[in-house]
Amino acid sequence: MALQLTINGISVGAIYALIAVGFAVVFNIMRFSNFAHGGMISACAFISFFFQRAIEPTPPLYVTIIFTALCGVIIAQIINTFGFHRIRKNNSPKLYYFLMSLTFAILIEQILTVFFGTNMYGFPSIFEHETFAVGPVIFKTMNMIILGVSIFMLVALILLIEKTKVGLAIRAVAIDSQTSRLMGINSNIIITTIFVIAGVLAGVAGVFLGVQYGVYPSLGPSMMLKGFIASIIGGLGSLRGAIFAAIGLGLIEIFFTYLLGATETTVIMFGILLGFLFIRPQGIAGKFTEDKI
Amino acid sequence: MKKFLLICLLVVFVLPLAACGGNEEVSETTGDETVVEEVEEEEVEDQETEEEEVSAEPILIGSIQDLSGPAAEAGTANAWGVEYAVQYINDNGGINGRMLEVITFDCKNDLNEGINVYRKLVDEYEVAAIIGPPLSNPASGWVEISEEDEMPIVGHFMDEMCTTDPDTGEVYPYMFLAEPSCSTQSDIMAKFALEDLGLTSFATLYNTGNAFAVAHAKPFMDYVTANGGEIVAEETFTWADTDYSAQALKIVEQNPEAVFLSDYTNQASLAYDFLRDAGFEGVILGANTLSLPFPTLVKNDIYDVYFLQNYDMMNPEAGGYELFQTYMAEEGSEYPKGNVAFGWDAVHVLVAAMLQASDPTDGAELRDLLEQTDGVELAEGTITLDPATHRPSNMGMYIAEYDENDNISILTYIEP
Q1: Residues B375 and B406 in one domain
Q2: Above pLDDT 90, what percent of chain A?
Q3: Nearest-angstrom CA–CA distance, B164 and B142
Q4: pLDDT higher for B403 or B52?
Q5: Which regions of A109-152 does DSSP assign to beta strands (E)?
Q6: Segments forming the whole domain that contains residue B286
Q7: How far apart are the C-alpha atoms of B9 and B3, rounded to whole Å?
Q8: Contacts of residue B279 in chain A, CB cutoff 8 Å?
Q9: What is the pLDDT of residue B45?
Q10: Which of B242, B264, B331 to mutate to test the interface with A (most CBs of A within 10 A)?
Q11: B174 and B220 belong to one structural domain
Q12: Chains A & B: contacts with CB separation below 8 Å
C-alpha cells in the first residue's frame, strides 16, 4: 500500500510542480507572484477541450498539448503586453503587478464563466485502459504520462536556464536587471521569454488538469493554492525548490489523507506552510527574496 | 467662451423644461367653472380607474436561485422552471384574474448573498412570497427572518434544517419544502440497497464542505446501520481537494459491496473515476446528482450505478415529459434537467395556496393555506405537505440506473 500511495503522491506532486514552476519562473525575474497563471491554466484547459472536440478524427494527445501550449504562449503575451508591460514602463510599485495579476486571474475566470457557465466539461476517455497493474500496484495511465512529460519539461527548463546563453541572461536579469541592461542584455526580450515559458507551462498544465479533473472556469485558480504553497516552501523564485516542494506536498497530501482524512490534511498542509514561514521563510532552496508579494 | 457655452446649455436644457412646466400650470390654474367640473369628473374617473388598477395589479413573487457559483447549472434550470410556470399560470387566468410577476435574484449558493437578496425582495420589492433555490446553504439563512417578515418561502432546500429546527424539531412556520427531504431520499436509497439489491456492507465517500452531501450521507449511514447493514468505511473530501485517490484506496482495502457517493455531479463523477481506477468493482449508489450529465464526465465504463431520480424524465408517458422537452428545445439543453420541474412544482404549490386566499399577498394567510397543501398537482404526481414538518408526506423517489448506452433507465419507484 505504501508503494501505491507513493506513486499516487508523486503523480499529484508532478501536477503541482508544473504549476509551482510556472509561478517560480515569473517570480524569478519579475519579483511578484503571478496569480494570473491560474486563469491561464483554466483558459488553456478550455482551449484543449474544444480543440479535441472540434477536430475529426480526435487528434492525439501530444498534438493537443502542443497546440494548447502555443495558445498558452499567446495568452501569456497578451497578459504581459496589456498588463505588466505598462506597469514596468511606468516603473510602478511591485504591488501593482500583484493587483494586475489578480485582476487578470479573476477576469479570465469570469469570462470563461460567462461563456461556458460553471459546469464541468469532461474529456472523453483517451486510453483503452485507464489503469494498468504491475504486480500489486495499479498505475493510472494518465498519471504516468503527466509524470513523464512533467519530468521532461522541468529538466529541459532547468537545462535551458543553467546551460544556455538565454538562461544566463535570464539569471543575470533575475539577479540585477539594471546592471544586466548596462551589460547589453535586453530585459524586455528576457521578460517576453519568461512569459513564453510560463505560457507553455500553463498550456501543458491546462491539458493535464483538464484531462485529469475535468474542465471548469475555476480549475486553474483552485489548483493555484497548492502550487503557491509549493513555490513558497520551495523558496520563491527557485525552480528546483519548487519542484521538490511540489513533489513533497503531493506525497504529504496523499499519505496524510490516507492516514488521517482529507479535512485534517488541509490543516496539516497549511500548518507546514506556516511553519516554513516562521522557521525558514527562504524555503527549501534557501533563496530569499525580500521583494516578494 | 465659457460664458457663451453656459448660456447655450441653459437655452438648450432649461427652456424646454420651463415650457413643459408652463403647460402643467395652465391646466391646474384654469378658473372656468365648466372646466373645473370636467376636471372633477375626470378626477373621479381617475380614482375609479386607479382602484381597478390596484385590484388588477400583478402579484409580485420573488425567485432566489443559484444562477452563478458551483450550483449554477441546477439554479438556472430552476429559475427557468419558475418563470415558465408563472407564464403558464398567467396564460391560464393568473390568480383569480391577477397576474403573477416574478423577480429573480442570484444567491450564488451563498448564505450571506441569500440574505442580501431576500432583504431586497422583501423590503424593496415587497413581494408576496418567495420561491427558494434547490440548495440548502442560502435557504438556511431565512428560517428565522421569514417568520419575522411573515414571508412564505417554497423551495427545494432538501436539508431538514431548512424546515424544522434541528434542536427542537419544531417547524419553521414560513419554510415549505416541495420534494422529499435529504433523509427521506437517502432512506429510500438505503432501503433499495438493503432490500432489493440484498447488499450488507457499505462505504461512503462525500464532501464534508457541502451541506447537500453531508445531509445525504449521514441519514444513509444511519438507515443502513439501523437496518442490519454495516458501514465499513466513511471517507470524505473537501472543496479544496481534487484528488481522491487516497480515499479510494482506503475504501478498496475495506472491500465494501457498495459505495454511496454524495456530492454534486462534478465531484461525484471524479469520485467515481477514482474508485474505479483504484480497482473498486462493486456497486455505486448516489443521489440525483448522478443523473445526466454524469456519463459525459466520467472516463471509466459505467456499470452497477444506481441513483435517485425525482422524475421519470425520459418517459413520454410521464407527466413532466412535455415540460422537460420544452426546456431542452428553448434552452438548447442536450438533456433534461430535474430542476426545471422543481421550479415548476414550487410555483404550483404556492399558486394553489394563493388561489384559495382572500388576499393572496397576505403572508400569514398564505402560510396557513400552504400548511394545508393537499393533493396539489405537480409536473409529475401530487404533493401533500405534513403540517408538522412542512415537508411532503406522500412523495417517493425513483431508482434509476444507466443502460449499456448510458441512457437512464428507471427501475422502480419507492414510497417514503
Answers
A1: no
A2: 46
A3: 12
A4: B403
A5: 131-134, 137-140
A6: 183-309+399-414
A7: 10
A8: 131, 138
A9: 57
A10: B242
A11: no
A12: 92
pLDDT of residue B177 exceeding 70, the answer is yes
Nearest chain A Cα distance for residue B65, angstroms: 14
**B173 and B192 fall within a common domain:** no
Which one, of B290, B301, B294, B324, lies nearest residue B400 by Cα?
B290
Contact residues, chain A, for B270 at CB < 8 Å: 213-214
User: What residues contact B41, with CB distance under 8 A and at least 6 apart?
Assistant: none
Do B114 and B96 lie in one domain? The reply is yes
Q: How many CA atoms lie within 13 A of B242 on its CB side?
A: 24
Residues B167 and B251 in one domain: no
CATH of the domain at B131: 3.40.50.2300
Residue B7 domain flag: no
Number of domains composing chain B: 2
How far CA B327 is from CA of A37, A244, B5, in Å, comes to 37, 51, 57
For residue A257, being part of any structural domain is answered with no
Nearest-CB residue to A5 (from B246, B273, B276): B246
Which chain A residues are Cβ-neighbours of B273 within 8 angstroms?
130
Q: Tell me the residue range of the domain where A70 lies.
A: 22-224
Report the complex ipTM.
Answer: 0.85
Most B-contacting residue of A10, A111, A115, A120 (CB-CB within 10 A), to test interface: A120
H/E stretch holding A248 reads: helix A239-259
Chain B residues with at least one Cβ partner in A under 8 Å = 68-70, 72-73, 76, 208, 235-238, 240-243, 245-247, 249-250, 253, 265-266, 269-270, 273, 276-279, 293, 296-300
Judge: A117–B238 Cβ closer than 8 Å, yes or no.
no
A13, closest residue in chain B (CA to CA): B243
Q: Tell me the pLDDT tens digit for each residue of A221-233.
A: 988 888 888 888 8
Shared domain check, B228 and B193: yes
Residue A5 domain-assigned (yes or no)? no
Is residue B372 one of the residues assigned to a domain?
A: yes
